[in-house]
């Protein structure tokens, strides 16, 4: 379980995250939603130690992350940011093999390569595994990065806007993979997501942020309601149930 | 070609050039000549290793392939020290004439400059690496302007002595200093071995490196100190060699075609030795010492740099 207690972050004099406390349950997909500038990515970065926190605690399995060794954390928690520009030229397979770095420090054993092969197969990248990343489309790139995280084989998987710039087909594909990670492999997935319909259809738990504060959190059904979304986005959003999924209709009629 | 084969080919080529350098036209007094040449080649190899090694590490840390470690102003610091010595004490002072003393002074001041810069920059939390580089560039320019100003005030005949120091040259390197430099470089190299495993992960960028468990800030700080030490040693020994690092690092990326530092670093080092020994051979055999190796390196390096920029522009 990840526990966040009284977490704060300031950029200059502006509070980006203000006294946020959260519990993230194991074996679920938790989505962070909220308008631009709500502090979702900042919160995710602090939970994953990419960003230093100004105040508060982040506990993973009851241990404060700043007291843990970075090496050990890399076997427990993985994070994928939304922009992944690199100055080195790598093939898909080379990229995925970096996921084993925490275990082998770059000298991969036969067992490490087995994990790499499995991750590549899991993301259906076998055919393009020897292609360079710059030869692939945005969706294929995103799958390759997720394969790296799968090879890292951590209990917690954090993704910052994994659907950014993807079309519906690829978005659905990615969300299904995340669902399988949780349902089949028992991982805990935390994502920052903008499309509330994707959040509604694929997540178990939703945390709604606004102006650096958690304004509502709860099971998906409790958050995807006209009243809560009005509070989050200042918009009247109609909710329709289609095939058991709650779909938000947010276009002005 | 496999990566190992490439390294072997480069090694053989470097060895061939070194042997050529040692034995071509040795003359009748061969014992004396050979000893002088051996010291010279030792200094050349050391400089080549330091510059190639530190440039590759620097470009990995900054994730940028057209930067050289000189961007933090070490070259300018070297020039300012030499100029200030001539200005304040005159060109016949011990501090300039005595190579040992001059070397120690230069090395110490360059290290103090670099460490002070790092200390000031890293004391404040959350500073980006590029901010350090920006401050470095500005300081470098400031030091450069001060140097130019002092040079205007110097007596023209003294300036000629100073000019001899402004370009890298292996013709007047002392054996004793080379030994000291080797000791420093080997110590720094041994220290680096502890950090070597992180290099590939760092080349992915900060976010990925932290995710993969690299203690990023601590490692980067140590690498920056290693870079400053090696550049200071090489510059204090032979003088500034601006383009060499940029040239050999990029040729190494092109030739090795890998992201793995276990091959990139040896590749860059060998290419650097080939460039320097080859350059020095040309200086001695073709131009009969009428120019210095840095002029040739800067000419070739400058043309290559333009080519890089134009090619980046196209893609």
Uncertain residue segments of chain B:
none
What integer is the average pLDDT of chain B?
86
Q: Sheet bearing the most strands of chain A, described?
A: 6 strands, mixed
Secondary structure: number of strands of chain B: 0
Describe the global form of chain A: globular
Properties at a glance:
heterodimer, A: 253 residues, alpha/beta, six-stranded mixed beta sheet, four-stranded antiparallel beta sheet, 10 helices, globular, B: 315 residues, mainly alpha, 79% helix, transmembrane helix (chain B), transmembrane (chain B), membrane (chain B), transport (chain B)
Short description:
Chain B: This is Iron chelate uptake ABC transporter family permease subunit. Chain A is α/β, with parallel strands linked by helices and 253 residues long. Chain A contains ten helices and twelve strands.
Summarize the helices and strands and which ones pair or pack:
The complex is a heterodimer of chains A (253) and B (315).
Chain A: E1 2-11, E2 14-24, E3 29-33, H1 40-47, E4 55-60, E5 63-64, H2 70-73, E6 77-80, H3 92-98, H4 101-104, H5 110-122, H6 138-152, E7 156-160, H7 168-183, E8 188-192, H8 196-202, E9 205-210, E10 213-219, H9 220-223, H10 226-233, E11 238-242, E12 245-249
Parallel strand pairs in A: 3-8, 3-9, 6-7, 7-8
Antiparallel strand pairs in A: 1-2, 1-4, 4-5, 9-10, 11-12
Helix pairs in contact in A: 3-6, 5-6
Chain B: H1 3-23, H2 30-62, H3 74-89, H4 94-97, H5 99-123, H6 129-153, H7 156-166, H8 175-193, H9 199-202, H10 206-211, H11 216-238, H12 242-256, H13 261-286, H14 293-314
Structural commentary:
- The complex is a heterodimer of chains A (253) and B (315).
- Helix content of chain A is 34%, strand content 28%.
- Chain A is built from ten helices and twelve strands.
- In chain A, strands 6-7-8-3-9-10 form a six-stranded mixed sheet, sandwiched between helices.
- In chain A, α3 (92-98) packs parallel to α6 (138-152) and α5 crosses α6 (138-152).
- The model of chain A has no long low-confidence stretch (mean pLDDT 89).
- Chain B is mainly alpha-helical.
- Chain B has helices spanning 3-23, 30-62, 74-89, 94-97, 99-123, 129-153, 156-166, 175-193, 199-202, 206-211, 216-238, 242-256, 261-286, 293-314.
- The longest helix of chain B has 33 residues, at 30-62.
- Chain B is globular, with a radius of gyration of 20 Å.
- The model of chain B has no long low-confidence stretch (mean pLDDT 86).
- Chains A and B meet through α2 and β6 of A and α10 of B.
């Amino acid at each position: 379980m990840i526990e966040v207690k009284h977490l704060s972050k300031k950029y200059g004099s502006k509070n980006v995250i203000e006294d946020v406390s959260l519990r993230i349950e194991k074996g679920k997909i938790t989505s962070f939603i909220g308008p631009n500038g709500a502090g979702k990515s900042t919160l995710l970065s602090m939970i994953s130690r990419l960003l230093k926190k100004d105040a508060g605690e982040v506990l993973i399995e009851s241990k404060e992350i700043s007291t843990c060794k970075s090496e050990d954390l890399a076997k427990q928690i993985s994070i994928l940011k939304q922009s992944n520009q690199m100055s080195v030229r790598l093939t898909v397979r080379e990229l995925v093999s970096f996921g084993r770095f925490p275990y082998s420090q770059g000298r991969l054993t036969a067992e490490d390569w087995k994990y790499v092969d499995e991750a590549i197969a899991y993301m259906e990248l076998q055919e393009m595994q020897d292609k360079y990343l710059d030869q692939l489309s945005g969706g294929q790139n995103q799958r390759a990065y997720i394969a790296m995280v799968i090879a890292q084989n951590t209990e917690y998987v954090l993704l910052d806007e994994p659907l950014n710039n993807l079309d519906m087909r690829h978005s659905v594909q990615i969300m299904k993979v995340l669902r399988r990670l949780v349902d089949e492999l028992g991982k805990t997935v935390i994502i920052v997501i903008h499309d509330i319909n994707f959040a509604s259809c694929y997540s178990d738990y939703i945390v709604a942020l606004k102006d650096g504060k958690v304004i509502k959190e709860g099971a998906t059904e409790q958050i995807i309601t006209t009243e809560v979304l009005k509070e989050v986005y200042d918009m009247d959003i109609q909710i329709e149930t289609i095939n058991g999924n709650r779909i938000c209709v947010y276009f002005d009629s | 070609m496999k990566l190992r084969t490439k390294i072997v080919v480069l090694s053989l080529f470097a060895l061939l050039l070194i042997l050529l350098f040692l034995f071509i036209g040795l003359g009748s007094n061969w014992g004396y000549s050979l000893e002088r040449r051996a010291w010279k080649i030792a200094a050349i190899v050391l400089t080549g290793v330091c510059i190639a090694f530190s440039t590759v590490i620097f470009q990995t840390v900054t994730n940028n392939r057209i930067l050289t470690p000189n961007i933090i102003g070490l070259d300018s610091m070297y020039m300012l020290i030499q100029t200030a010595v001539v200005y304040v004490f005159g060109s016949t002072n011990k501090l300039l004439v005595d190579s040992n003393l001059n070397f120690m002074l230069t090395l110490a001041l360059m290290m103090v400059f670099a460490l002070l810069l790092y200390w000031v920059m890293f004391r404040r939390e959350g500073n980006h690496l590029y901010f350090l580089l920006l401050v470095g560039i500005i300081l470098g320019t400031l030091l450069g302007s001060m140097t130019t100003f002092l040079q205007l005030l110097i007596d023209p005949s003294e300036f000629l002595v100073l000019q001899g120091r402004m370009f890298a040259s292996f013709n007047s390197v002392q054996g004793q200093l080379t030994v000291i430099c080797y000791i420093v470089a080997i110590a720094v190299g041994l220290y680096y071995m502890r950090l070597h495993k992180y290099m590939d992960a760092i080349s992915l960028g900060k976010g990925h490196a932290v995710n993969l468990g690299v203690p990023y800030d601590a490692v980067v700080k140590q690498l920056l100190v290693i870079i400053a030490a090696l550049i200071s040693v090489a510059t204090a020994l032979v003088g500034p060699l601006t383009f060499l690092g940029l040239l050999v690092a990029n040729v190494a990326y092109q030739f090795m075609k890998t992201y793995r530092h276990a091959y990139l670093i040896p590749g860059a080092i060998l290419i650097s030795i080939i460039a320097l020994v080859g350059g020095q051979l040309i200086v001695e055999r073709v131009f009969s010492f009428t120019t210095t190796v840095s002029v040739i390196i800067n000419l070739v390096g400058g043309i290559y740099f333009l080519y890089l920029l134009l090619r980046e522009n196209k893609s």
